[in-house]
Amino acid sequence: MKASRIRRRLAGAAAVTALAGAGILAGAPMAAAKANLIAIDKVALDAPGLRVNVTYSCDPGMHHELVANAEQITSSKLAARGAGTIKTDKLVCDYADHTAQVRLRPADQGFAKGQKVKITVFYFDEDGFRYADREATATL
Asked: Minimal CB count within 10 Å: which of 54, 76, 108, 136?
């Protein structure tokens, strides 16, 4: 056999292997690649606090909380702050996208219409590890 024939056969075998691997990946559930993600959908005033709508997905068996923090964007040191949590038993973890509403309670002074706020949403696990941070700004 000539060297060019061997090269063609090897190239053909490599192409078949690559296509088979791509077929396996294409057949895998797409949702599995989206686990542990967060998106901030909407921020609304819920005087004196805030209401944040989020879309999330998480791995089955995960034991973490979904946490949201808010801080008024201002040059003053007296900025409004708030926080809210969705506990582990309230999250649906099955790789699919789910929506949740996090109610943020103000730390001291409440939020008011017209204020600009920075929202941070993240997962917090039982070991104290924080991950998947997402940030957004909104005007109330």
From this structure: 76
